[in-house]
Amino acid sequence: MTNKPRFVFDTSTVVSAVLFEQAKPSQALRRALKLGHVLSSLPTLTELAEVLDREKFDRYVTQEEREEFLEGFIDRTLEIEPVEEIQACRDPKDDKFLELAVAGEARCIVSSDNDLVEMQTFRGIPIMTPAAFLDATESEVDAEEK
After folding, report:
1. pLDDT tens, residue by residue, 19-54
2. CATH code: domain of residue 45
3. Considering the entire predicted model, what is its pTM?
4. Any domain includes 1
C-alpha cells in the first residue's frame, strides 16, 4: 500500500473538469493527481464513459476530446475493485462512489452532487465540494512546492 493519499471524484465533478478547464472541479482534479492517486472502478468508469458520450456536451468540447480525456483519466487513475455493496446514499446511483472510497481507503470524496455532499462524511471519509477540497489541500501544495 502506498503512502500517497487517495481521492474519489464523482462523475459530475469529472465531467465539469472536462468541460470547464479553469473551473474549481478541474483545479481540484489536477491537484488530487499531483498530491496522490485518484481512484476509479469499473462502475464509476462505465458511468463516466456513458455521460461523456452525450451529444449535449458537443457545444463545449468535441467527442474526440472527451474520448481522449477519458483515455487519459483511465491511465492516470488507480483502479480498485470494490468488495462491499453499500446502500447508504439517498440516490442509489451514488453508492458506487462510497463503495470505491471504502475499498480504496480514500482520504476523501470530491463531489458536486448534493446527494453525496449533504452526507458530509461516510465511515469517517469526508465528502466535500471541489472548492472545499482546494481549500483543505492548499497547505499540502504549498509544502510540496518548498
Report:
1. 999 999 999 999 999 999 999 999 999 999 999 999
2. 3.40.50.1010
3. 0.94
4. no
